[in-house]
Amino acid sequence: MRLDLSQVSLVCVDNIYPDLAYRAIKCSSSDINYYQRIFFTSSAWIFKNKKNIDQNILLVEIDHVDSINKYSDFVLKHLTQYIESDYILIIQWDGYVYSKLLWREQFLSYDYIGANWNKSDVRTVGNGGFSLRSKRLLNAYQSSNLQAGHPEDEVICINHRKILEDQYGCKFADPKVADLFSFEEYRELAGDTFGFHGFFNIPLIGKFDDIRAFIDLMPNSLFSHGHFEYFVKNIIHYQVDGRQLIDLLYLKIQSNGKTCEKTKKVIFKAFYKNGLDTLALQYLKYILTHEKLFSLVTVMYIKLIIFRLKMKFNLGK
Fold first, then answer.
1. What are the CB-based long-range contacts (under 8 Å, 24+) for 267-271?
2. Is CB count within 10 Å lower at the N or C end of the chain?
3. CB under 8 Å to 178, separation ≥6 — which residues?
4. DSSP H or E run through 11
5. Domain with CATH 3.90.550.10 in the chain
6. Degrees (nearest 5) of the Cα angle 19, 85, 190?
7. What's the confidence (pLDDT) of residue 124?
8. Residues 183-193 as b or e (16 or more Cβ within 10 Å = b)
9. What's the mean pLDDT in 2-23?
């Protein structure tokens, strides 16, 4: 049975990882009827992929939104002019619908819901990467009293929350409701939810084929992402065929060609920190064979030996 979200528009704004963003839209569209689905992305990506895109998705060119700061400004100050529905569900390349069966009508009682954060040991709503927002909240930011800033979810939920509640009548979900809606860093507190955010969480919620499809689309820049190590860790810990996925990830790294030294270090660390010593050594050999970076390989190898000794003698980090 299809989920009726005819009061909600599905929205994704992405100029950085458009292939992964489009995948997130498709994942969030399975057996769900929205008022509208809108993908804001670059004209180059639209031109390249237009013939293969779902024709029911509205494509909007936003070449000027090419940084995270401009993303925040666009979402806060310009997005509302494209929205006709009472609510929007904002998704990102690394945050989308997990289970349509976990949707609750009570979510529409609020003007903003996102995954809980822990701010100064207090659970606070919440993350904007997978969030439900009302048209009322979007329209509030047309006022000159509310200035844009980055990151936009903190601007809404921390900087401006009291103003939005007192002057504009906006209602924020409480932490218990947010735990039913989405999770980001604290799945053990939230349990199963309607959606999630964070690419390191994909191995927690995805099946083998889902993760393989995600790996196929990963660009080089994600290999140096701050959460890449945890992505690898969660594949190993939560996927039955995790090692097969790791091998596919390794092949993807090789197929993407040369990477900067920072990326090499992050990849290497992700392998040896998660007990993949053999793969870490294999990666060093690959670098040495193809790029002749003797000094970098030497440093990485020394780090691996030190890490092994610390683990052997229980010396900690």
1. 267/223, 267/224, 267/228, 268/300, 268/303, 268/304, 269/229, 269/303, 270/228, 270/229, 270/231, 270/232, 270/233, 271/232
2. C
3. 113, 114, 115, 116, 125, 126, 190
4. strand 3-13
5. 3-197
6. 65
7. 85
8. bbbebeebeeb
9. 97
| This model's pTM is above 0.85 | yes
The predicted-structure confidence for 185-203, as pLDDT tens digits, reads as follows 867 655 789 999 999 999 9
The candidate with the shortest Cα–Cα distance to 111, out of 149, 82, 140, 84, is: 140
The rounded distance, in Å, linking the Cα atoms of 74 and 79 is 6
Q: Give the model's pLDDT for residue 50.
A: 87
Decide if 157 contacts 123 (C-beta within 8 A): no
- Regarding predicted confidence, which is higher, 282 or 209? 209
Closest CA to 140 of 75, 231, 229: 75
Alpha carbon distance 76, 252 (integer Å): 36
For residues 244 and 247, give the distance between their C-alpha atoms in angstroms, rounded to a whole number: 5
Cβ neighbors of 303 (< 8 A, separation 6 or more) are 268, 269, 272
Residue 217 corresponds to which tokens in the numbers above?
Answer: 């689309």
DSSP class of residue 1?
-
Structure letter (DSSP) for residue 102: G
Query: Which pair of tokens denotes residue 177?
Result: 């409701």
| Total number of residues shown for the chain | 317
- The CATH fold assigned to 3-197 is Spore Coat Polysaccharide Biosynthesis Protein SpsA; Chain A (3.90.550)
**For 144-186, how does the pLDDT look when each residue is reduced to its tens digit (9 = 90+)?**
889 999 999 999 999 999 999 999 999 999 999 999 999 998 6
Following DSSP, what letter does each residue of 165-234 receive, concatenated?
HHHH---BPPHHHHHHHEESS-HHHH-S-SEE--GGGHHHH--HHHHHHHHHH--GGGGGSTTHHHHHHH
